[in-house]
Specification:
With about 200 residues, the protein is an alpha/beta fold. The protein has a single domain (about 5-155, about 180-200), classed as Glycosidases (TIM Barrel). The chain is built from 5 helices and 4 strands, in the order αβαβαββαα. The chain has helices at about 5-20, 45-55, 75-85, 135-155, 180-200, and strands at about 25-30, 60-65, 90-95, 125. Strands 1-2-3-4 form a 4-stranded parallel beta sheet, with no helix packed on it. Strand 2 (about 60-65), helix 3 (about 75-85) and strand 3 (about 90-95) form a beta-alpha-beta unit. Helix 1 runs parallel beside helix 2 (about 45-55) and helix 4 packs across helix 5. It comes from Pomatostomus ruficeps (Chestnut-crowned babbler). One of its GO terms (molecular function) is beta-N-acetylglucosaminidase activity. This is OGA GlcNAcase. It holds the Pfam family NAGidase.
Amino acid sequence: VFPSLAQAQASVANEVYQELGQPSVFLFCPTEYCSSLCSPSPSQSCYLQIIGQELLPGIGVIWTGPKVVSQELSAALLEEVEGVLRRRPVIWDNLYANDYDCRRVFLGPYMGRAPGLMSRLHGLLLNPNCELQANFIPVHTLGTWFRSELGSCAHPDHAGTEAVAALGDSQGAQDGSYSPQEALELALRDWVAEINQQALEPGR
């Protein structure tokens, strides 16, 4: 019926989206959802070009970055993806995901994301560790990153660029930019306080 997989997927997604009354949040995960799955690149992928052309503009498209689990996200990559999809992507961030390896637990801060990414995103979803208690630092530091991004949006003259510092650098509380190290220290302080409070509860 359809000349390509992309056209089939876009047609079905569009029909479901319209049948549901075009909800404000409707996400589509493409078969090529990261750069490493694209051939030869996101901007030259025939599949993504068709998805960008055929998918209704109100539908959000999920993207994980250069890889399924991306250590870094750059503004340049997001600009390329936005160009081919004709919309800003929704990042499905697998930085902390460990459902594929139960021996892996990531307790570090949210990092490796270039400053000033907020304006290039339609949204961001965090795929956490499977172990609930292991996600205090990931969620806490993501909140700190989010607040710093909001601050950059409110004060464009303070918005970071990739040339300012290497990704993950611990600079910048004084200039309003995100510091993974400082975010980690804040998260650890609050986590210890919560653990101490729980330890005082009856039955603990």
